[in-house]
Amino acid sequence: MFEGSDSEKISMEDEINRVKTGIPGFDELCGGGIIRDRSYLVSGTSGAGKTNFSVQYIYNGITKYGENGIIVATEERPEQIRENVMKFDWDLQALEDEGKLVIIDACSTKIGIPSQEKYVDVRPFDTRSMMDQIIATQEEINAKRALIDSTTSISFYLQDPAKIRVELLKLSTTLEVIGLTSLMTCEIVDERSPARFGIETFVTDGTFVLHYAMHNNVRTRTMEIFKMRGSDHSKKLHPYDITSEGFVIHPHEEVYTSF
Ligand SMILES: Nc1ncnc2c1ncn2[C@@H]1O[C@H](COP(=O)(O)OP(=O)(O)O)[C@@H](O)[C@H]1O
Ligand SMILES: [Mg+2]
Fold first, then answer.
1. What sequence ranges are listed for the domain KaiC (predicted)?
2. In the 8-state DSSP scheme, what is residue 33?
3. Which pLDDT belongs to residue 200?
4. Residue identifier of the C-alpha nearest atom 14 of ligand 1
5. How close is the Cα of 52 to the center of ligand 1, in Å?
6. Would you tell me how many other CB atoms lie within 10 Å of the CB of residue 223?
7. Which residue range(s) make up the domain with 57?
């Protein structure tokens, strides 16, 4: 399989309960999918594709694997997320109407504008309030997957890395305990560091980094599984594209570069 793996390890991995992302090219890079009831960080600079990747995970969960999902939108209003992914023909509103998806608006209150949404987090910087809302929603629609997009505004609000670490750990642990397999996005500014505040990778079970960087005057998109607890995974940089059908990773191509 991947460098450093042996047959014993692979057979052990077969027994792990995997959650398929269904993102073309991704699951085969990490033993068939992410591990059930764990939380993962999706890091990248602005425009790298974190929201597309993560919404695709939720959308595929509902449409391909029968697993309902929750999206907590802290950076964009739910309306913007719905509109942005319509270009891939993903009709989130229809899934919401069917009771398979809930998008919690944790953005409007933060910026002080009224929200027409059914699900609104009125205390968006309070992780306890966010967790309570996720727990209630999970019971309502029997969700199995969640997305927090993103953790960066919560971290900016808390400022202190020790506090950020505790709050994000509470959040990721709560999601795991209630049976949600989750992605949390994290906006970075430096391609060489997978976390904005230096600690976000410690509180999640894995980190996927989307690099969108200039090399020889060309901006290239590459993905790296930086960390994945309890699983073998590719250690290489793999190119990806955002196409009219969404995110596509090229698992058999590698990119050699240094950031
Ligand atoms: N239909 C499309 N075809 C190609 N690229 C697209 C398409 N839609 C969006 N993109 C790319 O996706 C980027 C935004 O992705 P997004 O997931 O919102 O980034 P992030 O959340 O990391 O800031 C855009 O800057 C654009 O380059
Ligand atoms: Mg985004």
1. 17-259
2. S
3. 87
4. 47
5. 7
6. 29
7. 32-212
What is the average pLDDT score of the chain? 91
Provide the residues around ligand 2 (an ion) whose CB is within 5 A: 50-51
Structural domain total, the chain: 1
Q: Is the dihedral of CA 158, 121, 20, 177 positive or negative?
A: positive
CB atoms within 10 A of CB 170: 14
Residue 20 lies in a domain: no
Res. 257: pLDDT tops 90: no
Q: How many C-beta neighbours within 10 Å does residue 69 have?
A: 27
Read off the pLDDT of residues 149-195 as tens digits, 9 standing for 90 and up.
999 988 888 889 999 999 999 999 999 999 999 999 999 988 888 88
155 close to ligand 1 (CB < 6 Angstrom): no
pLDDT one-digit tens code per residue, 104-159: 999 998 889 999 999 999 887 889 999 999 999 999 999 999 999 999 988 888 88
44 CA closest ligand 1 atom index = 22
| 11 domain residue, yes or no | no
Q: How many CA atoms lie within 13 A of 218 on its CB side?
A: 5
Q: What is the Cα–Cα distance from 208 to 185, expressed in whole angstroms? A: 9
In a domain, 61, yes or no: yes
Residue 206 one-letter amino acid: G
CATH number, domain with residue 148: 3.40.50.300
Decide: 87 in ligand 1 pocket, CB within 6 A: yes
